[in-house]
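Review this fold:
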Amino acid sequence: MWDNKEFRVRLEENSMRDYERIMLTSGECGFFMPMGFIGEEGGEVACYDCSGFAPLNSYSIEKTDDALYILESVLLIVGKSIEYLITPAKITVTEDTVFYNKETGQVKIAYIPITSETVSMRNNLAAFVDQLSANIRDGKDHYLTEAKKYIMHHNYYIREMVNKVGLFKRQLYAEYKQEKS
């Protein structure tokens, strides 16, 4: 899948709609990894240009503020995807598909459509929060636990989820500042 600047995934036949393909290959969606397609019998391979980026699974995210920054960025991407006719519930969000540029702090997603109708956006995001929480070492992971609860147990729009994560970031900053004084 990931091989030094290139990420490849075999997609099932008809897993991506034509308009999604057009939007994602046009370069208009700057928050998704640039991609192209190679046809194969019974499906196709999506090729992503990951120059400057690496998947989150190649990093060890140990600080809660870093994890909250990434979560907020992912939620913003998921929210903006609607503007490009990409259904948020179809976006695979994992440490394998979320990419980070260490030099710029930019976050992008390699779009891989979820083909199962049983997976919800909330469950997808909650599982991603669990992945982010796995390596936290600063003892502040309760903010991620609260973010997960907020995502799972409230019927909020993505924008409201972004605002809540922003609030958690401000609370965490205030907590850090108080500890230093």
Remarks:
- The helical segments are 18-26, 64-81, 121-133, 142-153, 158-180.
- The radius of gyration is 17 Å.
- The chain has a mean pLDDT of 89.
- The beta strands are 2-3, 6-12, 35-40, 43-49, 54-55, 98-100, 107-109.
